[in-house]
Specification:
Strand 10 and strand 11 (about 335) form a beta hairpin. The chain has helices at about 5-15, 15-20, 55-70, 80-95, 130-135, 135-155, 155-160, 170-175, 180-185, 200-215, 220-240, 255, 260-270, 285-290, 355-365, 420-435, 440-445, 465, 475-485, and strands spanning about 40, 50, 105-110, 115-120, 125, 295, 305, 310, 315-320, 325-330, 335, 340-350, 370-380, 380-390, 395-405, 410-420, 440, 450-455, 500-504. It has a 7-stranded antiparallel beta sheet, sandwiched between helices. The radius of gyration is 24 Å and the shape is globular. The protein is an alpha+beta fold. Helix 4 packs across helix 6 (about 135-155), helix 6 crosses helix 10 and helix 6 (about 135-155) crosses helix 11 (about 220-240).
């Protein structure tokens, strides 16, 4: 969560439907289209497609939206060496496309999520979370080739522009109360950039990506091997979030890019990929490029350690109950459990209220009548709270809202959402979360260092259990270490193997 983040402050940006109004033949939203004009032959696919916009329109659209995309995912990861490496690999692949003269740009995003995105006109971004999972240059090239395939096939220009704002899963989905502020609490601007292509478009991007990989001299099998790693990661992520097997959240690349290893292999066959003599894999060079890269959350944006959230910039911390999975974004911090209960934490400005109770009812929750309004003192901070029971067409939920005086005309805010059937049972644990919010001093903040990937040689006697203890995933540390190092279940580390270790 950025220090300046607030759902209230960002609500005009979050509702991107407003941006769609008034768009005419000269403009489009990310991966959107404009007015129907004529049919044209796509140089990449060779097919007749509806020319909904020109290539120049694509370039203008991508250039306009790229800064917003980068900001929505934590900004660019500011390291010249890694950025230069990714750019070099991306340009190498792009040089073998049907549209090599597009102004391609490749940016590493400072985000721990595992995803990659392409805007029309050649603007492509990949998260450092994805870079952490990949293990070879060929795998990175496969990801970039796939995204370049979307650009060259002009999939974004063929699609209806969509502004899909993510809600906080089941926890907020059913609260159709008319309260714009409550709905926006579970929203994320970043989600609007996670274009969900059709399966046919994904297949086409894979076919083109394999073509470009082969032409550039990379091992085309790397695309399928890395997809297998992403699939395994999505399964572990589902377990961590208490989701049903096979279900992934909206930020995971397996959601925004619905693909299977079998489909990628079919795409390779259809693409007629040539056998590459001595294909480039480059595991050691790739691992060297990510050595020292920040892993998981960046403390400057706030970070999660198990059940605790810490923000060194704001000098605050709080802890959520066991069973809740914490997620940090640029706009808020969310936590959800298997019962659909949710916690949302953010910060907002106070516009006109003289008291915190006035703020709750007159600025934050304006469309719901709160009851049980009272003032609190929490670890030296003045606070106020209120509750409500709300009902939509398919759900009843209990809400508790709490605002804390953060100083400088701002408030910290908690929103708790529970099913009435579990409200009483969870009341004490959620109350403990409220009273866990506290300020940390400069000395405590200075001790907090980001986790980083360190590339090292495994030694005799090294075990997965020992090497994984510094990961931030608790009971899932072993699984994550295996994901990062391409180890099968039960497989141990071979002495002398180059491995990724996560440490502060």
């Amino acid at each position: 969560m950025h220090a300046c983040s607030s759902a209230h402050h960002h609500s005009p940006r979050l509702n991107r439907r407003d941006l769609l109004r008034g768009l005419t033949a000269g403009s489009a939203l990310a991966c959107g289209c404009v007015t129907l004009s004529s049919c044209a032959t796509n140089p990449a696919t060779g097919e007749q497609t509806l020319a909904l916009s020109s290539i120049n329109d694509d370039v203008r659209t991508g250039a306009k939206q790229y800064p917003e995309l980068i900001a929505a995912f934590g900004g660019a990861y500011d390291t010249g060496r890694l950025q230069s490496y990714v750019t070099a690999v991306g340009r190498k692949v792009a040089a073998y496309t049907e549209l090599p003269d597009l102004p391609y740009e490749f940016t590493v995003l400072n985000s721990p999520i595992i995803n990659a995105m392409a805007l029309p006109g050649g603007k492509i971004a990949v998260t450092r979370g994805l870079l952490a999972l990949a293990s070879t240059e060929a795998e990175l090239a496969g990801v970039l080739a796939h995204e370049v395939g979307h650009v060259n096939a002009r999939h974004g220009a063929q699609s209806q522009g969509r502004a899909t704002i993510a809600q906080l899963g089941l926890a907020v989905l059913g609260i159709a109360t008319g309260s714009k502020e409550l709905v926006n609490l579970g929203s994320s601007l970043a989600q609007s950039f996670l274009q969900k292509y059709s399966r046919d478009q994904e297949f086409e991007a894979d076919s083109l990506g394999v073509r470009y990989l082969s032409r550039a001299g990379y091992d085309p099998a790397a695309m399928a091997s890395f997809l297998g790693s992403m699939h395994e990661q999505s399964q572990v992520e589902a377990q961590m979030q208490g989701l049903p097997p096979g279900q992934v959240d909206e930020y995971n690349i397996m959601s925004s890019h619905p693909r299977t290893v079998e489909r990628v292999q079919q795409a390779a066959q259809q693409a007629g990929a040539i056998t590459v003599a001595n294909p480039v894999v480059n595991r050691e060079g790739y691992l060297g490029s990510i050595n020292g890269m920040v892993f998981a959350d960046d403390p400057s944006q706030g970070f999660v350690r198990g059940q605790t959230f810490i923000h060194t910039g704001l000098s605050i911390t709080f802890t959520v109950p066991d069973g809740f999975t914490l997620r940090n974004s640029t706009e808020n911090v969310t936590a959800q459990d298997k019962y659909g209960s949710a916690i949302v934490f953010d910060m907002a400005p106070v516009q006109r209220s003289r008291t915190l109770i006035e703020y709750l009812q007159n600025e934050w929750v304006t469309d719901i009548r709160l009851s049980g309004l009272e003032n609190l003192q929490v670890n030296g901070m003045a606070a106020a709270t209120g509750t409500a029971r709300v009902q939509s067409s398919n759900r009843v939920a209990d809400l508790r809202v709490i605002a804390f005086n953060a100083g400088s005309g701002r408030v910290y805010r908690f929103l708790f959402v529970t099913d009435p059937r579990v409200t009483d049972a969870q009341s004490r644990a959620l109350r403990e979360t409220t009273y866990s919010l506290r300020r940390i001093d400069a000395a405590e903040a200075a001790k907090i260092k980001p986790l980083r990937i360190i590339v090292a040689q495994a030694r005799d006697g090294d075990t997965v259990d020992a090497l994984s203890r510094t990961l931030p995933y608790g009971q899932f540390n072993d699984e994550w270490f295996r994901l990062l190092n391409d180890l099968k279940p039960g497989e141990e580390v071979a002495a002398g193997r180059t491995i990724k270790i996560v440490t502060s």
